[in-house]
Amino acid sequence: MTARAYLAEALGTALLLISVVGSGIMADALTDDTALALLANAIATGCMLYAIITTLGPLSGAHFNPAVTLAFALRGEIGPGSAMSYVACQVIGGVIGVWIAHIMFDLPIFQLSSTSRTGVAQWSAEMVAMFGLLFVIFGGLRSRPETVPTLVALYITGAYWFTASTSFANPAVTVARSFTDTFAGILPAHAPGYIVAQIAATLIAVPILSWLFAHD
């Protein structure tokens, strides 16, 4: 992998967190309606996903997600060293994106979330969200690769609404969101439960989806 690929992963994940956290802050400031705030948050995130996957995909594959990187590593499509570097770039980029969102909205840069997100319902929702994300990625790559940005954007926008966890589906996003005490935050002590669920879903999804979408 080239330096441009690593920068693309860091930049893309930063932009993703700017959209997640920034839109949450804006929505929370403009309305007391939680459903409307979540809708705004979901739309902004979906729009950003389409933009960053389309523009940065040719440079790095547009993972922006350690679980996605793990999935491709398990399939032998990225080496262990490159995968570890991708994950480091994603986590660092995500946290920087949160800090940039705080600066834009004149909030304290360094925060820890106080929002409780835990329990079997939340963890199972994260497993469904993660499995579904890999489903649309691998299914899209098998059938029509050019549609993957749209598929991912639409899936995550919808998954904000049909999962109990609002579909983090991304360990780097989960870590980064523990550093914001805003609409999008997650209590740091609860982040590991989400990450375990996401990784478990990845380990389940890869063999199933690799067989399902295998080239005959």
TrEMBL record:
<keyword id="KW-0812">Transmembrane</keyword>
<dbReference type="GO" id="GO:0015267">
    <property type="term" value="F:channel activity"/>
</dbReference>
<feature type="transmembrane region" description="Helical">
    <location>
        <begin position="83"/>
        <end position="105"/>
    </location>
</feature>
<keyword id="KW-0813">Transport</keyword>
<dbReference type="InterPro" id="IPR023271">
    <property type="entry name" value="Aquaporin-like"/>
</dbReference>
<feature type="transmembrane region" description="Helical">
    <location>
        <begin position="120"/>
        <end position="141"/>
    </location>
</feature>
<dbReference type="InterPro" id="IPR000425">
    <property type="entry name" value="MIP"/>
</dbReference>
<keyword id="KW-0472">Membrane</keyword>
<protein>
    <submittedName>
        <fullName>Glycerol uptake facilitator-like aquaporin</fullName>
    </submittedName>
</protein>
<dbReference type="Pfam" id="PF00230">
    <property type="entry name" value="MIP"/>
</dbReference>
<comment type="similarity">
    <text>Belongs to the MIP/aquaporin (TC 1.A.8) family.</text>
</comment>
<dbReference type="GO" id="GO:0016020">
    <property type="term" value="C:membrane"/>
</dbReference>
<dbReference type="InterPro" id="IPR022357">
    <property type="entry name" value="MIP_CS"/>
</dbReference>
<keyword id="KW-1133">Transmembrane helix</keyword>
<dbReference type="InterPro" id="IPR034294">
    <property type="entry name" value="Aquaporin_transptr"/>
</dbReference>
<feature type="transmembrane region" description="Helical">
    <location>
        <begin position="153"/>
        <end position="173"/>
    </location>
</feature>
<feature type="transmembrane region" description="Helical">
    <location>
        <begin position="37"/>
        <end position="62"/>
    </location>
</feature>
<feature type="transmembrane region" description="Helical">
    <location>
        <begin position="193"/>
        <end position="214"/>
    </location>
</feature>
